[in-house]
Amino acid sequence: MGAKTGDTLARLRDLATVGFIAGMLTAALLLPYALMGGLSVRAADRGFQKLPADLVTPALPQSSVILAADGSRLATFYYENRVEVPFAQVAPIMRKAIVAIEDSRFYEHGALDVKGTVRAVITNLQAGEVIQGGSTLSQQYIKNALAEMADNAQERRSALEPTAGRKLRELRYAVGLEKRFTKDQILEKYLNIAYFGDGAYGVEAAARHYFGVHAADLTLAQAAMLAGIVRSPTTYNPHLHPKRGRQRRDLVLNRMLQLKVITPADAAAARVQPVKLKITKTPNGCVTSSAPFFCDYVQREILGNPVFGKSLRQRRALLQRGGLEIHTTLEPKMQKAAQHAVNRHVPPKNSSGKAAAEVLVRPGTGEITAMAIDRKLGDSSKRGMMWVNLAADSDHGSSLGMQAGSTFKVFTLAEALRQDMAFGDKLFAPKEFVPTGFHDCAGNRVGDSTALGNAGDGEGGHDFTLVTGTWHSVNTFFLELERKVGLCETYKMATRLGMRKATGGKLAQYPSFTLGFNTVSPVRLAAAYAAFGARGRYCSPIAITSISSPKGPVRVPSAGCHQAVDSDVADAVNHVLGGVLTKGTAKGNEIGRPAAGKTGTVDNFSSAWFAGYTPDMASAVWVGDPRGGYKHPLRDVCLGEGCFAQVYGADVPAPIWRDTMTEALQGVPEHAFSAPSGGFFRKGSGEEEEDKDKKDKEKGDAKAGDKPGHGDEPGHGDEPADGSPFLDWLLQAWRP
């Protein structure tokens, strides 16, 4: 019993001695700071005991990537360029190099290195200032971790400044760190948090940046170079200071040789190697992306949607620090096709300042497979560049939208077919139309006495069927049709198909609704037309399919699909719009497979559109002037494919659509539209009068339907009305 008691007392004396020595060393370590700061060593020691011992190790900021549907990278976002990797994915020689130069006794000591501390104390006392800190890798990790956890610049400075308080805090936390984690785990944390200069945080980002390799593949010479940087990332940066960087590398090699980590032959072979850098910049953001405006659309979706965080600050932190892997709907092949087409027909630096935007949406899913603008993302004051995403709504690209023109006639057509009108139903299209007898959904009478007309004399003064009126896009026919089926009902049809103003508000309801005075975005128009390709199933446009993070999957909003139009009505719309490409305003823009579409030319030629689709893909194309279409109309302009007195929807937008779809759908199996039900043919095909007019023309008879502007001449009949639909809306809006 006595012997055991003696042994216990001996162990207690040993522990007390160790504690005393540790306390003295701690005080010695803090002595230079205490003297300079007017702090007594006893006070410093009391402060040390009161500090918390556990530090919640921070989640390190990691870069996020946006990926195309095929997995290729579109962009990288980061607050700090870092890719966190596990211990096993760091080359063993890299681990040895960092330990050799920064803390050679790392695996032998605890939170405090006695020898290192004594050496630092002597050096500091001799110099009369703090030259060496004697910090272990654990303490260095704590310093970096506290800096990462700082919420503002002041907290970050406090985490890095050479004060007694900081050293106390570091050591206290380091003690707790050593209790919670193994040495390998601490080294892994350090390698991932350390700054290696040139904007590279962590060993993986550093390996990629300086040498274009992964941390797992670093050679001895490369590892020694990186290990040498962390002491002073600017001074020893081999990119900025090749000579100093090499000298520092050789110093690390010598230290590794001294510690017998490497052989003399290894050291000699590495020393004679020249500094071979392969600087690989990691772009931050969308500017250099292969699909910059789509990338920007995705970025704005994350920053603007509360699903990804309650505040903008939280959402930005998620994107820039969360290490997200964002999988998107973009298909590189289709993006390339769209970009080629818009650039070919509306060159980015054309002398007229005109622009083009196109969006592709997959029917039945809402997936945005391409988003192209004939500009680069960037400073709008520079020619051929702009920040505004003309293809998107204001919440996804700052655009206020563009008047849709005659592409909106499809909603009136769909409503007429929903109300069981037949292809052969006829309406008289006057030469001028006075918009009376219209009511909005609130029951208010809307309209005025301003007459609206057609482009050519031949467009008015006789009957058109649903088919021929659509093929030739006759304004007064559609105004009469809208009055017949109801303005409110037409509005409801458009909203069921996802249409809203680009600013996010509801569409305005005035007689010129069917002529497209509302300002919308190409992405929403493409999604609406895609619904017809999907037999009436509308899906809101989406760009993100899934997001993964180091913490697990991130919730992503779904497309929100619903049956907006009965399938038989959609089939009938497809049948009518198919003739636009073969016999109507867009004739000559067929793509060699079943397709349908609608041209659109906005009042005063301020812009032009084409929206078209197949069962597999839909697209909306806009061409105009970002500076303002009414001030800079599409008149007397020369673009990529020629010069135009005025630009109709069939002149530039339709060819862009044709070229895009032809290239994008190569290799995609062809699918046909479903045939419309026989009920829609109960009054004929709707083409009879068209065929009769052609026969009369061949005989030389002067028929009303043969006058200029009628028939298959591209664009005519889709020309804006003599009155201004937009002015019509303004007058109504201002009327008491």
From TrEMBL:
Bilayer-crossing regions: 12-35
Span of domain Glycosyl transferase family: 71-256
Reactions catalysed: Preferential cleavage: (Ac)2-L-Lys-D-Ala-|-D-Ala. Also transpeptidation of peptidyl-alanyl moieties that are N-acyl substituents of D-alanine; [GlcNAc-(1->4)-Mur2Ac(oyl-L-Ala-gamma-D-Glu-L-Lys-D-Ala-D-Ala)](n)-di-trans,octa-cis-undecaprenyl diphosphate + beta-D-GlcNAc-(1->4)-Mur2Ac(oyl-L-Ala-gamma-D-Glu-L-Lys-D-Ala-D-Ala)-di-trans,octa-cis-undecaprenyl diphosphate = [GlcNAc-(1->4)-Mur2Ac(oyl-L-Ala-gamma-D-Glu-L-Lys-D-Ala-D-Ala)](n+1)-di-trans,octa-cis-undecaprenyl diphosphate + di-trans,octa-cis-undecaprenyl diphosphate + H(+)
Biased composition, class Basic and acidic residues, residue ranges: 692-719
GO cellular component, one term: outer membrane-bounded periplasmic space
GO MF entries: penicillin binding; peptidoglycan glycosyltransferase activity; serine-type D-Ala-D-Ala carboxypeptidase activity
GO BP, sorted A to Z: cell wall organization; peptidoglycan biosynthetic process; proteolysis; regulation of cell shape
Pfam families: Transgly, Transpeptidase
Protein origin, superkingdom: Bacteria
Region feature (Disordered): 670-727
UniProt entry keywords in alphabetical sequence: Carboxypeptidase, Cell shape, Cell wall biogenesis/degradation, Glycosyltransferase, Hydrolase, Membrane, Multifunctional enzyme, Peptidoglycan synthesis, Protease, Transferase, Transmembrane, Transmembrane helix
Domain Penicillin-binding protein transpeptidase: 359-619
Family: In the C-terminal section; belongs to the transpeptidase family.
Name of the molecule in the record: Carboxypeptidase
Species assigned in the record: Actinoallomurus iriomotensis
